[in-house]
Amino acid sequence: MSVEIPVELQPQIAAAIARGSYANEQELVIDILRVAVPVLGQYQQIRADVQESLTELQQGKTKVADLEAIRLQLDDEFGNRK
Fold first, then answer.
1. C-alpha–C-alpha distance, residues 82 and 77, integer Å
2. Where on the phi/psi map is residue 74: left (φ > 0), alpha (ψ -120 to 50), or beta?
3. Quick check: 62 and 53 in contact, CB under 8 A?
4. pTM > 0.85: yes or no
5. pLDDT at 2
6. Residue of 44, 38, 65 lying closest to 52 (CA atoms)
7. Is 25 exposed, middle or buried (0-12, 13-18, 19+ CB in 10 A)?
8. pLDDT band at 72 (very low <50, low <70, confident <90, very high)
């Protein structure tokens, strides 16, 4: 596989290699991908969850939460702990 690195990213890549953080561009890209791939999976799941929530909202399957009432209920139940 061959990938072209945008010109604006090349100085950061050269600097990482010059610092000795990576032996070459391939090592750096592999390390970046090891971090990015799981994050991308989580991002896609979050997008799917948000879309599902929006669909449920549009279908009237949700209700607005009264956060102040919930806070007061929790204060009554657990006291004002600090």
1. 14
2. alpha
3. yes
4. no
5. 87
6. 44
7. middle
8. very high
Q: CA 15 from chain center: how many Å?
A: 26
Q: Would you give the distance in Å from CA 52 to the centre of its chain?
A: 18
Query: What is the band of 8 on the pLDDT scale with cuts at 50, 70, 90?
Result: very high
String of DSSP letters for the chain: ---PPPGGGHHHHHHHHHTTS-SSHHHHHHHHHHHHHHHHHHHHHHHHHHHHHHHHHHTT------HHHHHHHHHHHH----
Which two structure tokens, joined as six digits, stand for 50? 């948000």
Would you state the pLDDT for residue 82? 57
Q: What angle do CA 42, 48, 51 make, to 5 degrees?
A: 140
